[in-house]
UniProtKB/TrEMBL annotation:
The keyword Transferase does not apply. Residues 116-297 form the Ketoreductase domain. This is Short-chain dehydrogenase/reductase 3. The lineage of its organism: Eukaryota, Fungi, Dikarya, Basidiomycota, Agaricomycotina. It is a multi-pass membrane protein.
């Protein structure tokens, strides 16, 4: 059955009603599903399943050998390419085995979801709300921490909502005791709460900076201090940290946001070292997310360039894609670093600390990046595709319910 955003209170909450109002200068255009959905990530996905797939390239030398002699350049090149792709695949496999302290031949046992209690901060809207609903539909116990009472009260009895300002250590400490008593000890923590101001450095007030670092950075420390001890006693668990690619490369008008997200990258790395080497609990997994622009209310004041080339190279991410990646990492019981979309892979080489990219090239890449070309409005604006994105979220939730 077809549904609209106005029919679903969850969709309304995930992206505020006022955010659905497009800017007055936005021209209407007919939807073009094929072109609008075609981007660099689709190309990369196709290539990864074909000429960059070890299984696929293994057939190339055999195919050429059946048609040309072994001294033919085509056969030699195919052997070299196959060797290179297989080497990269083995390299990645060794890295995953080491990172997850697994075995060489067998993947870790899949997560037993029925025994899990998932704690989600910032679960009252956006990615957090969608993740909570998705997990609850699968009959998983979910605990949501939200600063304000949600406009939409979930009807799913698997979701327990607690109003708590996670930037306040005493508030987190108090609510943690209630959760442990009423629900149990969380086995999975998703630190998702975050804010963005979109102001120039000199326009930021003291309250703005404190609010940004409180929600984006300090909240992670307070939640971990409250709930990590129970994980250490159990010897297993999973901690998901929602950072941003802007923690690796800066952007104008987002100084406080970028700095707060950069701190989370270091936090995740240090936490991983402590779990492995000090607490001796490698079975407690850590997943770090480094997404680019996600179409949620958090960035509703961001107006992105709408040229076709920018939509192809730097596509915005739909929230259900992030949710899918989180669930995949949890289900596989693997520690991961998730970078989305594909162009964010370049960010790992662009930081000042790496020194792998010349300054002139880094500046060019940053100037053409989606965030450097974004404009922050004090009105509530969304990109012209927000309505279509919300329909996709809603369709996923409705389909899951059915």
């Amino acid at each position: 059955m077809a549904a609209t955003i106005s029919d679903d209170p969850l969709a309304k909450n995930l992206l505020n009603d006022e955010d659905l109002t497009a800017s007055s200068d936005t021209e209407s255009r007919e939807p073009q599903p094929v072109f609008d959905s075609f981007d660099l990530d689709i190309v990369v996905k196709v290539l990864s399943k074909t000429i960059f797939s070890p299984f696929f390239v293994l057939f190339l030398p055999v195919t050429f050998l059946s048609q040309v002699p072994s001294t033919h350049p085509a056969f030699i090149i195919s052997v070299a390419w196959t060797t290179f792709i297989c080497f990269i695949d083995i390299w990645n496999h060794v890295d995953k085995v080491y990172r997850c302290r697994g075995t060489w031949l067998f993947a870790p046992e899949k997560l037993k979801w029925g025994k899990q209690i998932v704690l989600i901060t910032g679960g009252g809207s956006g990615i957090g709300a969608l993740l909570a609903e998705t997990l609850a539909i699968r009959n998983i116990s979910v605990v949501v921490l939200t600063k304000e009472p949600p406009k939409y009260e979930s009807e799913n009895e698997n979701i327990s909502t607690y109003v708590c300002d996670v930037s306040d250590y005493k508030a987190v400490e108090a609510v943690s005791k209630r959760i442990q008593k009423e629900v149990g000890d969380p086995t999975i923590i998703v630190n998702n709460a975050g804010v963005v101001k979109g102001k120039l450095l000199l326009d930021l007030t003291e309250e703005d900076v404190q609010n940004t670092f409180g929600a984006n950075t300090l909240a992670h420390f307070w939640v971990l201090k409250a709930f990590l001890p129970a994980m250490l006693r159990a010897g297993e668990g999973h901690i998901v940290t929602m950072s941003s690619v802007l923690g690796l490369v800066g952007a104008a008008q987002m100084t406080d946001y970028c700095a707060s997200k950069a701190a989370l990258i270091s936090l995740n790395q240090c936490l991983r070292f402590e779990l492995d080497n000090r607490y001796k609990t490698p079975s407690i997994r850590t997943t770090l997310l480094l997404p680019s622009f996600v179409q949620t209310a958090l960035f509703s004041k961001t107006h992105l360039p709408d040229s076709r080339i920018m939509r192809f190279l730097c596509p915005p991410i739909q929230p259900h894609v992030i949710v899918k990646e989180i669930i995949s990492a949890l289900d596989a019981r693997e520690s991961r670093v998730i970078r989305l979309p594909f162009y964010t892979q370049a960010a790992r080489f662009m930081g000042d600390g790496m020194g792998l990219v010349p300054s002139w090239l880094r500046d060019i890449l940053q100037r053409v990046s989606v965030f450097s070309n974004a404009r922050f409005w004090m009105d509530s604006l969304v990109s012209r595709r927000a309505g279509a994105v919300m329909s996709a979220w809603q369709a996923d939730v409705i389909a899951s319910n059915n």
